[in-house]
Amino acid sequence: MDIRTKLSQWSRSSEAMGTRYLLVLLLVLLVLRFEVQGAHEPQQDETTSSALLTQMQESLYSYWGTARSAAEDLYKKAYPTTMDEKIRDIYSKSTAAVSTYAGIFTDQLLSMLKGDS
């Protein structure tokens, strides 16, 4: 897979996540609207309002669980493979560079201590 394909997939998944967050925000605003609208109306039965609240809570919890599992799946798919490879590559390159420069420094220090020209 080339980098363009990966970036394309990542941008599509981030767009999907943005859409999910927008839907959550709309649901919260909808619930708040019903709460404000309910404050202006005469009091209804406790059972009716508690049933509506329970139904809204269940649907929000269900949506939250779905969004959370989708985010976890995305994390499991994206992070371990790409990030671990990048970390291993950076580690191997940096240790190779450090060992090279440490060898040069050691040689220079030994030649200074011996007094060789």
Provide a compact summary of the structure:
The protein has 117 residues and is mainly alpha-helical.
Structural notes for this entry:
Residues 1-38 form the signal peptide. It is found in: Secreted. Keywords: Chylomicron, Glycoprotein, HDL, LDL, Lipid degradation, Lipid metabolism, Lipid transport, Secreted, Sialic acid, Signal, Transport, VLDL. Component of chylomicrons, very low-density lipoproteins (VLDL), low-density lipoproteins (LDL), and high-density lipoproteins (HDL) in plasma. Plays an important role in lipoprotein metabolism as an activator of lipoprotein lipase. Belongs to the apolipoprotein C2 family. With 117 residues, this protein is mostly helical. It is 91% helix and 0% strand. The chain has helices at residues 3-40, 46-114. Helix 1 (3-40) packs antiparallel against helix 2 (46-114). The chain is rod-shaped. The mean pLDDT is 76.
Oligomeric form of this entry? single chain
Structural class: mainly alpha
Principal-axes shape call: rod-shaped
The low-confidence runs, each spanning 5 or more residues with pLDDT under 50, are: none
Q: Give the fraction of residues assigned to helices.
A: over 70%
Radius of gyration: 29 Å
Give the tally of β-strands.
0
What's the end-to-end separation, in Å? 53 Å
Please give the largest β-sheet. Answer: none
Mean pLDDT: 76
Order of helices and strands: HH
β content, as a range?
under 5%
Q: Count every helix, treating DSSP H or I runs of 4 or more residues as helices.
A: 2
Protein name: Apolipoprotein C-II
Signal peptide: 1-38
Pfam families: Apo-CII
Subcellular location: Secreted
